[in-house]
Design goal:
alpha+beta; Alpha-Beta Plaits; Calcium-transporting ATPase, cytoplasmic transduction domain A
Length: about 725
């Protein structure tokens, strides 16, 4: 039996602050059978590794803490989104009740109104529903934290509002005691109510803002087809998508979505793959091509064979990858977690010390200072600063076709000093194409290309496809050519007979074997092209050379612009390839790459990566093949081209969905933007506490007679979280 940990992602309902997430994370970390746990308050997702436990045990642990764990399949409708909508609607109704009652309390307590409305029992009646109905969530959260031998935002809010409420209740029930002992007999019912109302308002606005933090994954979740047209019992039948099995034949009509990952068996069509790749241009697909679930058939009828269904489709894998990344934590968050863990206990001690101090110097402000500190020092903004930026950053990347595997990859990508590229399939498209073409003699180009197309269609040589493709694109008209006596000459080319004369297509050695030599100009051109690492194909007919083709693996579009962009970011560029030195040097010269390491065997690439890490400190590797997997794993950041092998994609920390190399600098820029946004959030969260906690303690009172109103403290605390979320959402509008 395998002991490999099983990765599990699920939604956690009922969290009110980042401290809730920490409490759940600690409880899960102590549970037998769970090797690793991470809970992200930003998107309310938990990510755990199971080595013996099952989800039922996990759900029980979370339920005991006062929350709910909900497991959903990656290709289902977004259950979490529905729960958030329900929570938002419930909170809205609670907030409306709290707003009305708190508003009345403020009016009746502070403005001239008939004496009946100032009656302490009447004010108590208005305040109690706010305290225990609207404020129930804070008591539940505080109790949950206490059960876990911890404290959180709810602890501070529950304590702060309770001090104001129960002090006022004591004044109402025993006014004589306060008068006899010369104690402050002021009622703070409106303070307790407004504190709860303002914090509820802040949570409502925070939830509203967080709804927009994962727009890309929401779109992906809504893309999955619900039904498919399946060939069954001699006819086409519409069935639920979960009935489709690998090997089934499916029909996709124009305008319909591809239901599962498949291969086209019959037909051709243009497909819109923008929802998966971010590429707006449609892609033409023909028999034998792969098609992916959720892409849209624009104009043709297709019969496809299902290859991957359910959780194995690319769509499901993308959703799973994004959720994993959003649920993980960068190193900077681990530091914040340690601070937040001790923050609330420190504030509780500070509040008590402040209360005792003011009792000695000026008891009239002791209670107000105590309430102020408890309310204004909420760690919610601090705990939310990192995860909400991470959620938005990962989501933005997914929308652009940049899939980030975990938070560490996003964090360290901002520090990359050197970018190492594999050559074939990364900087180049991975297939040979005609780069140069020169004709000789009096035969027309159309005649020459007709001969080449007909002959090379019969060949299985890798260069044959490049010649046929070039001929098809450049033929002015299709000329019928009939060849006979076709022969393949391994390692040299092909020969055939056309109109009783011999046709040769192949290497210079094939020509020499047939006693055909190059003149001076041809030799000079051949030498020049060979220096450029081109493979040469000669065409001869009737003992006369008609043309020379220069064939090479074509550069990917935007390769040069990508390298230039990396240079502008201060990043060194390096080619690491198994190809010969001349070919690698040629590519490096064209792309202005800084360093070339060629003729490296696959098992040597990892050692080279280690050397580069020692030289440049933080390096990234871009590759696409099985032979790149060890190097991708060894690099600080492995970046896989989406069109590459599954092994390479699995080994990489970042995957570029549609193999667009220009996404490489965009991925690094996304990292820099996200980390900068996290630091901004942390600055404001810390600055907020550093500035306002002393004010809440009353440091301005002796010199300036200024004391913070607890209601304003509640308002400031509520909007600190909203500010952090709003700043994180700015990432969505920033250009990569």
């Amino acid at each position: 039996m395998s002991n490999k940990p099983k990765q599990l992602n699920f939604h956690v309902a009922g969290m009110h602050c980042a401290s809730c997430a920490q409490n759940i994370e600690r409880a899960l970390g102590k549970t037998a059978g769970i090797s690793k746990a991470s809970v992200n308050y930003g998107n309310e997702q938990a990510s755990i590794e199971l080595v013996g436990a099952d989800f039922t045990q996990v759900a029980t642990v979370i339920q005991k803490l006062g929350y709910r764990a909900i497991l959903q399949e990656d290709d289902q409708a977004d259950v979490a989104e529905n729960l958030r909508e329900q929570e938002l609607e419930k909170l809205k109704k609670t907030l409306l009740v709290s707003l009305v009652l708190s508003g009345l309390l403020v009016i009746f307590s502070m403005l001239p109104v008939p004496e009946f409305f100032k009656n302490p029992y009447f004010l108590l009646a208005l305040s109690t529903p706010v305290q225990f109905f609207a404020g129930r969530r804070f008591y539940q959260g505080a109790w949950s934290a206490l059960q876990n031998k911890s404290s959180n935002m709810d602890t501070l809010v529950a304590l702060g509002s309770s001090v104001a409420y129960f002090y006022s209740l004591s004044v109402v029930l025993a006014p004589g005691f306060f008068l006899q002992n010369n104690l402050d007999a002021h009622l703070y019912f409106e303070t307790a109510a407004v504190i709860i109302t303002f914090i509820l308002l802040g949570k409502y606005l925070e939830l509203k803002a967080k709804k927009n933090s994962s727009s890309a994954i929401k779109k992906l979740l809504g893309l999955q087809s619900k039904t498919a047209t399946l060939w069954r019992e001699g006819g086409w039948q519409e069935v639920d998508i979960d009935q489709v099995r690998v090997g089934d034949r499916l029909l996709v009509k124009p305008g319909e979505k591809i239901p599962v990952d498949s291969i086209i068996d019959q037909g051709s069509a243009s497909l819109d793959e923008s929802m998966l790749t971010g590429e707006s241009d449609s892609v033409h697909k023909k028999t034998g091509d792969k098609v992916f679930a959720a892409t849209i058939n624009q104009d043709g009828s297709l019969e496809i064979i299902a290859k991957k269904v359910g959780q194995q489709t690319m769509l499901a894998q993308i959703i799973r990858l994004v959720k994993n990344a959003q649920g993980s934590k960068p190193n900077i968050q681990k530091l914040v977690d340690r601070i937040a863990q001790i923050f609330v206990p420190i504030i509780l001690v500070l509040a008590v010390l402040t209360f005792i101090t003011w009792l000695y110097f000026d008891r009239s402000i002791a209670l107000i200072s105590l309430i102020n500190i408890l309310i204004i020092a909420c760690p919610c903004a601090l705990g939310l600063a990192t995860p909400i930026s991470l959620v938005v950053g990962v989501d933005k990347g997914a929308g652009q076709g940049i899939l980030v595997k975990d938070a560490h990859a996003l964090e360290i990508s901002s520090q990359v000093k050197a970018m190492i590229f594999d050559k074939t399939g990364t900087l180049t498209v991975g297939r040979p194409e005609v780069q140069e073409f020169k004709t000789y003699g009096h035969k027309t180009q159309n005649f020459i290309l007709s001969l080449v197309q007909t002959a090379e269609t019969l060949s299985a040589h890798p260069l044959a496809k490049a010649l046929v493709s070039f001929a098809q694109k450049n033929l002015e008209q299709n000329t019928s050519v009939t060849l006979s006596n076709f022969l393949s000459h391994p390692g040299m080319g092909v020969s055939a007979t056309y109109q009783k004369a011999k046709l040769l297509i192949g290497t210079q050695a094939l020509l020499e074997q047939n006693k055909i030599s190059l003149d001076e100009s041809m030799q000079q051109l051949a030498k020049k092209w060979r220096q450029q690492a081109y493979s040469l194909v000669f065409v001869a007919y009737q003992k006369e050379i008609l043309a020379i083709f220069a064939v090479a693996d074509a550069l990917r579009p935007n390769s040069l612009a990508t390298i230039q962009k990396l240079h502008s970011m201060g990043i060194k560029t390096i080619i690491l390839t198994g190809d010969n030195q001349q070919s690698a040097n040629n590519i490096a010269k064209k792309l202005e790459i800084d360093e070339v390491i060629a003729e490296v065997l696959p098992d040597q690439k990892e050692a080279v990566i280690r050397e580069m890490k020692a030289k440049y400190k933080v390096v990234a590797m871009v590759g696409d093949g099985i032979n790149d997997a060890p190097a991708l794993s060894s690099a600080d950041v492995g970046i896989a081209m989406g069109g590459g092998t599954d092994v390479a994609i699995e080994a990489a920390a970042i995957t570029l969905l549609h193999s667009d190399i220009s996404l490489v600098p965009q991925a690094l820029h996304l990292s820099k933007l996200t980390i900068a946004n996290i630091r901004q959030n942390l600055f404001w969260a810390f600055a907020y506490n550093v500035i306002l906690i002393p004010v809440a303690m009353g440091v301005l009172y002796p010199s300036f007679n200024l004391l913070l109103n607890p209601m304003l403290a509640g308002l400031a605390m509520a909007f600190s979280s909203v500010t952090v979320v709003s700043n994180a959402l700015r990432l969505k509008g920033q250009k990569l």
